[in-house]
Write a structure and sequence with these properties.
Number of strands: 8
Order of helices and strands: HEHEHEEHEEEEHH
Oligomer: single chain
Shape: globular
Structural class: alpha/beta
CATH topology: Rossmann fold
Distance between the termini: 29 Å
CATH class: Alpha Beta
Number of helices: 6
Largest sheet: 6 strands, parallel
Number of domains: 1
Strand content: 15-25%
CATH superfamily: P-loop containing nucleotide triphosphate hydrolases
CATH architecture: 3-Layer(aba) Sandwich
Helix content: 25-40%
Amino acid sequence: MSEQRQTAARTGRPALVAIVGKSDSGKTTLIEKVVPELVRLGLRVGTVKHDAHSFEIDHPGKDSWRHGQAGAEAYVIASPERLAFIARLDEELELVDIVERFYDGFDIVVAEGYKRTAPHRVELFRVGAGHAEPLCAPGEAIALVTDADLEHEHRFGLDDGAGLARFLAGRLDSLREY
């Protein structure tokens, strides 16, 4: 068993944090900076991207799509490198439910979005994106990533993915409380 998987096996419930911010603030770009740094720290990392709209992962006419069209409530597309689980939902799953169902053995899950329901949030606020004020009220975000001159106990610059990753890694136990 790899050292990384041994670490994950000891952790139990994964830590959970969401990167939140207004539209076009750069949430995906920040996640692209933070995830490799968390991995460099030896953590097994998963992500969840919230989409407020319906999306299509499967392709009409393909065999797996045909399985769904035939009435399967859930189906998997599997290859040697990837696996996608597709299920019909009667209602949206909460972020915590997604993490508990699909991320057993992970050290941390970083979500994008879930600005109102994530138990732990890091806000990305960019004046350079034309935003006038942060999304979160004071005290709601555990950290602030920004290009603005705003006060926050745990403030990071837009390019400080390594610093944010160290901050999150140092708080895994508290981020497991949800």
